[in-house]
Design a protein that fits this description.
This protein has 454 residues and is α+β, with helices and mostly antiparallel strands. Helix content is 35%, strand content 25%. It contains 15 helices and 20 strands. Helix 12 packs antiparallel against helix 13. It is globular.
Length: 454
């Protein structure tokens, strides 16, 4: 087992990894930017190293500084968390060339599943169902036009190297295709340095279902059930829950088993998530995330398994202690992402937290790195923390979440707490009758009503 792990991330995930390491008896090193010098992760870590200025490119994306920090602190392994360098295959190769262990999958698997076109081809090879779409990249507008006409509108143009909704354009009719194709390529180039795009059929009312998977270096592979991440805004997840309120036990068993078999064939090592769109009883592979997910706590709450600990164990070469016989899904869990944003306009709201109180009580978990007096910097993601609840069933989880939201205090900055209360109080959420377009539609209706009232 590792003696010392360097945590190449910030905020709540850096603190989350630190906690897992300490429980395993592993020393921690946290790297940080000048803006994060007073962060909770830095305060808690056994060692910390400043690796650059506040901008991500000068610090958390500074591969040479991170590797230097690992060298001078004699770390054994590097955990990337999520975001930043977590799915950067070149960084993985650099880590391994310098004699450290990367706590995550191989560079080859990151490359293969990170390119959306290659990932879709791989999914087909592994026997996973896919959304109808182009056979590969669309090099010209003429190719896009031909594919769209053959498939039928609406269609979705997506960046091959994309994520988070960037480089993604919905096209509902032919006259809008050319502009959408040009915009998608431009956004893809600007955000990912790669203007490759492809096309898929746009599903009208799908749910977003993802399967948490794990593989080890001994050929073992498992899944730990699904998460429903259908409450989204601009392709960004807002609320996640497990299990999905819409899947039957038969559907759950089918897609979980299919996903575990796929990563076993792939020889995948570590934690990952295979994401699907689900509509009319059918699953369609969307993408695979080769890292731990922001929403991993909901799976931990219903399984009782520490996924970060399992990541570290697998990276150290140990066998999975888990198998489908000893994994039990118990109760229901829901997570809401609390962002420092205006709940109406979604404008960022960085600044000092004057007063902070995390909700508590039975079945309540608050993953965050903020504290009274903490200054939220304007340079990074606006997430303040994640509020996760667990109940014996979905109704109890919703009731517990409502109480926990009301109990949470974050004064000094605006947050999305009122938005979450509005979402879970809606009749559609209570019945589980929603899809990936639901939140944006409801927000538009709310804005229109407000406009009329004024």
């Amino acid at each position: 087992m590792f003696k010392k792990v360097l945590i190449a991330n910030r905020g709540e995930i850096a603190l989350r990894i630190h906690r897992a390491c300490k429980e395993m008896g592993i020393q921690t090193v946290v790297v940080h930017s000048t803006a994060d010098a007073n962060s909770m992760a830095v305060r808690m870590a056994d060692e910390s190293v400043c690796i650059g200025g506040p901008r991500s490119r000068d610090s958390y994306l500074n591969t040479h500084a991170i590797l230097t920090a690992a060298s001078i602190t004699n770390a054994d392994a590097i955990h990337p968390g999520y975001g930043f360098l977590s799915e950067n295959a070149e960084f993985v190769r650099m880590v391994e060339e310098h004699g450290f262990t990367f706590i995550g999958p191989s560079a080859d698997h990151i490359d293969r599943m990170g390119d959306k076109v290659m990932a879709k081809k791989t999914a087909v090879e592994l026997g996973l169902p896919v959304v109808p779409g182009s056979d590969g990249a669309l090099e010209t507008y003429e190719e896009a036009l031909k594919t769209a006409n053959e498939m039928g509108y609406p269609v979705l143009i997506k960046a091959a190297s994309g994520g988070g909704g960037k480089g993604m354009q919905v096209v509902r009719e032919e006259k809008a295709l050319k502009e959408a194709y040009t915009t998608a390529r431009s956004e893809a180039k600007a955000n990912f340095g790669d203007d490759t795009v492809y096309m898929e059929k746009f599903l009208l009312k799908p749910r977003h279902i993802e399967i948490q998977i794990f593989g080890d270096k001994h050929g073992n592979a498992i899944h730990l059930g699904e998460r429903d991440c259908s409450i989204q805004r601009r392709h960004q997840k807002v609320v996640e829950e497990a299990p999905s309120p819409t899947l039957t036990e038969e559907e759950r068993t089918f897609i979980g088993g299919l996903s575990a078999d796929a990563i076993k064939k792939l020889g995948y090592v570590g934690a990952g998530t295979i994401e699907y769109l689900f509509e009319d009883g059918k699953f369609y592979f969307m993408e695979m995330n080769t890292r731990i997910q922001v929403e991993h706590p909901v799976t931990e709450m219903i399984t009782g398994i520490d996924l970060i600990v399992e990541q570290i164990r697998v990276a150290a070469g140990e066998k999975l202690t888990l198998n489908k016989e000893n994994i039990r899904l118990r109760g229901h869990a829901i997570e809401v992402r609390i962002n420092a944003e205006d709940p109406e306009t979604f404008a960022p709201s960085p600044g000092e937290i004057k007063q902070f109180h995390a909700a508590g009580g039975l079945g309540v978990r608050f993953d965050s790195a903020v504290y009274n007096g903490y200054k939220i910097p304007p340079y990074y993601d606006s997430m303040v923390g994640k509020l996760i609840v667990h109940g014996r069933d979905r109704d109890e989880a919703i009731a517990r979440l409502r109480r926990a939201i009301q109990e949470t205090i974050v004064d000094g900055v605006k947050t999305t707490l009122p938005l979450h209360l509005w979402i879970i109080d809606s009749p559609d959420f209570k019945t589980g009758d929603y899809n990936i377009h639901w939140l944006e539609k409801k927000l538009a209706e709310k804005a229109e009503e407000k406009k009329k009232a004024s």
